[in-house]
Amino acid sequence: MSSFWSIWIIALTVISLVLITWLLFSNRKITGSKETQTTGHVYDGIEEYDNPLPSWWFKMFVVSIVFAVAYLIAFPGLGNFPGLLNWTSVGKWEKEVAEAEQATAELYKGFMATEVTSLASDRNAMRLGKRIFANNCAICHGINAEGSYGFPNLSDHDWLYGGDAEQIRASINQGRSGVMPAWKNMLDNNGLEAMTQYVKNLSSTGADSTTPAGKQFAMLCAACHGPDGSGNQMMGAPNLADNIWLYGGDAGQIKQSIANGRNGQMPAHHDKLSEEKIHLLTAYVYQLSRPSR
Ligand code: HEC
Ligand code: HEC
């Protein structure tokens, strides 16, 4: 918060305190006599008394004003005005973060010294990994890493780029960019339909590579997806023969993928997360598809 707003709030508080004090004292009536007075207002024969404020009430009001002034001096806690006790909410928060970081630093040092494959079976480490995943990755991959349209499932055995520790680490560190070119200029609508059917067949009835579409697949697609459509992790080209789909396996979606191309983006995290956290996340993702460990 800028000092302007701190001063603004402090000034408003002081002004209200002064006004309240003035209001209290200017309206105070000290009557020595015991006789009852009225304000002169009469409603249907009911008269309004004009008694002084009860003294217990008056004293409590004064005490709370004194308390407010003392509180304001001791800890305003606003931005650059720490008050006599030197307390600010920001300062308190920073201290707590520093303490928490120190407490976890030791923990993370231990994690760093452990290989991904053994870290993956450390239940405490994985509990922490799940939290980091929830905060940074779940927004795209889902809270259980089950993925969704355009975002790969990280808990199955189907990998675009590979499920070994080093490939997972590379995916997280550097990010990934899937480049599936658009073919609508190369294939006319009939060609697109035939190719869509061919791709569908790859994972169901089996595809006949001697058909015109099969020959076209070998020419246009095999370089990335492999001659049998089983994919290529060097290119991040998905396996088209396994009935697991990044963008959906119905004819409409497959045709979309082929006609317009796809470009899935996994953002790089090396500049967002510490090396220790990425190490822990690597182990976390590693064990998701190996639950028996
Ligand atoms: C903005 C969305 C987004 C976020 C956030 C994100 N990812 Fe991804 N991630 C993707 C997409 C999209 C892909 C697939 C890229 C492609 O299509 O080539 C991917 C791919 C991956 C892969 C490769 C999967 C494979 O099959 O090879 C891994 C591993 C991965 N992400 C882990 C993570 C982790 C761990 C985090 C959290 C630190 C994370 N991702 C955060 C969108 C995201
Ligand atoms: C340059 C390499 C490359 C070529 C050539 C290529 N693809 Fe792809 N294809 C990819 C990549 C990479 C993806 C994943 C895109 C992503 O991650 O967003 C993909 C995705 C797809 C998908 C979506 C898969 C899913 O799981 O939803 C289909 C379908 C597909 N390609 C079919 C084809 C067909 C048919 C051809 C030939 C006409 C072809 N591809 C040619 C690289 C290629």
Plain-language structure description:
Pathway: Energy metabolism; oxidative phosphorylation. One of its GO terms (molecular function) is oxidoreductase activity. The protein has a two-stranded antiparallel sheet with strand order 1-2. The radius of gyration is 35 Å and the shape is elongated. It has 293 residues and is mainly alpha-helical. The chain contains twelve helices and four strands; from the N terminus they run αββααααααβααααβα. The model has no long low-confidence stretch (mean pLDDT 90). Helix content is 52%, strand content 5%. The chain folds into three domains: 1-26 and 50-87; 103-176 and 269-288, Orthogonal Bundle (Cytochrome Bc1 Complex, Chain D, domain 2); 189-263, Cytochrome Bc1 Complex, Chain D, domain 2, CATH 1.10.760.10. The structure holds heme C (2 copies). One heme C (HEC) is lined by residues 178-181, 183, 195, 199, 220-221, 223-225, 235-238, 240, 245-247, 254, 257-258, 262-264.
Task: Please specify the SSE layout and strand pairing.
Blueprint: H1 3-26, E1 38-43, E2 46-49, H2 55-74, H3 89-112, H4 116-119, H5 123-136, H6 138-141, H7 165-174, E3 176-177, H8 189-203, H9 212-220, H10 222-225, H11 251-260, E4 265-266, H12 275-288
This protein binds heme C (2 copies).
Residues 136-137, 139-141, 150-152, 154, 159-162, 168, 171-172, 176, 178, 236, 264-267, 269, 281, 285 line the site of one heme C.
